[in-house]
Design goal:
GO terms for molecular function: protein phosphatase regulator activity. It comes from Scytalopus superciliaris. The protein is 72% helix and 2% strand. It contains 16 helices and 2 strands. The protein starts with a helix and ends with a helix.
Length: 269
C-alpha cells in the first residue's frame, strides 16, 4: 500500500537520528537496514513514495548521517541511472532535481567526478525543457559546489548554451543566478566572457528575461569589487552580504561605511 510506504519514509530521518545518538548500541543498523530502503524507494512505482524518499534522503544528507561510501556506491549510481538519456521522463526530472539539491551537501571531489559530467549532459537535454530549466535554476549552486577551475572549464560553455536557449524561461533562470555564477569565476572570465553574455540578457527580446537581468545587474556588478576592500562575499544560501573591513571596525561608529547601504540595496534588488 503506497500510503504505508510513504508514512514509513517520513519516519526514517528521526529513526536515523536516534540511531546516530545511540551508535554504541546500534553501530550498523542504519547502514544495513534503513539506507537500502531509502535507496530502493527512489525508484518506487508510486510518485508520492518517491517524493517522500527524496525528502528523506535530503534530510539525511543535511544531517550528515550518510557515509561518504554509501553516497558514492549506493546513492549516486541510482541517480545516474534515473537521469540517463533513455530514462523515463518523470524519473529523469526528479533525478536531476535531487542531484542539484545534493550538490551543496557533498564533497567537491564527489560532485566533480560523479555528478558533474551528468549535469553537463542534462544542460543540453533536447527532449525535456523541464530538465534544462532545473539545471539553469540551480546553475549557481553547482558552480559553487565544484569551484572555479571546473566552472570555467566545463560549466561556462553550458551556461552560454542555456543563456541562448529558445525557451525564454531558461534565459530568465540564467539571469536570476548570474551573480552566483560570476562570483565563482576569475576576474578575467568575468570581464571577457560573462559581461558580454549579461549584455545579451539585458537586451533580450523577452521582457521577463530583461526584467530578471536588470534585477541581477547590481549583484553582478558587485562581483567585480575587490573582496578585501569591499568586504563582499556570498553566504551559503547564495545571498550577497558584506563583511566589515578592518578599517571599518577600527573607525568611529559615527562614520558608517557607504558601501553597506549600496550592497544592501543591491541584495534586496
Amino acid at each position: 500500500e503506497p500510503t504505508v510506504r510513504t508514512e514509513l519514509m517520513e519516519q526514517i530521518p528521526p529513526i536515523a537520528i536516534f540511531l546516530q545518538e545511540s551508535r554504541p548500541n546500534f553501530p550498523t543498523a542504519f547502514f544495513e537496514y534503513l539506507m537500502p530502503i531509502v535507496v530502493r524507494y527512489l525508484t518506487d512505482v508510486n510518485n508520492q513514495v518517491r517524493k517522500a524518499g527524496q525528502e528523506a534522503l535530503l534530510i539525511l544528507l543535511e544531517q550528515d548521517l550518510v557515509a561518504q561510501s554509501d553516497i558514492e556506491n549506493k546513492v549516486c549510481p541510482i541517480l545516474l541511472d534515473l537521469s540517463a538519456p533513455d530514462s523515463d521522463d518523470e524519473y529523469k526530472v526528479e533525478a536531476v532535481n535531487i542531484i542539484c539539491k545534493m550538490a551543496s551537501m557533498l564533497s567537491r571531489t564527489t560532485v566533480e567526478h560523479m555528478l558533474l559530467p551528468r549535469f553537463c549532459e542534462l544542460c543540453s537535454d533536447g527532449k525535456l525543457f523541464q530538465v534544462r530549466k532545473i539545471c539553469a535554476a540551480n546553475f549557481g549552486d553547482i558552480c559553487n559546489a565544484v569551484g572555479q577551475e571546473a566552472t570555467e572549464r566545463l560549466l561556462i560553455p553550458k551556461f552560454f548554451e542555456l543563456c541562448s536557449d529558445s525557451v525564454w524561461g531558461m534565459r530568465k533562470a540564467c539571469a536570476e543566478c548570474f551573480m552566483a555564477v560570476s562570483y565563482t569565476t576569475s576576474p578575467e572570465v568575468r570581464r571577457s566572457k560573462l559581461s558580454p553574455l549579461f549584455i545579451s540578457l539585458i537586451s533580450d527580446t523577452c521582457r521577463w528575461v530583461r526584467q530578471a537581468a536588470f534585477q541581477s545587474l547590481g549583484p553582478f556588478i558587485s562581483t567585480f569589487a575587490n573582496p578585501s576592500s569591499a568586504g563582499l562575499y556570498i553566504r551559503e544560501d547564495g545571498t550577497l552580504s558584506i563583511r566589515p573591513s578592518a578599517q571599518d571596525v577600527n573607525s568611529s561608529s559615527c562614520q558608517p561605511s557607504s558601501n553597506v547601504t549600496l550592497v544592501s540595496s543591491s541584495a534586496n534588488a
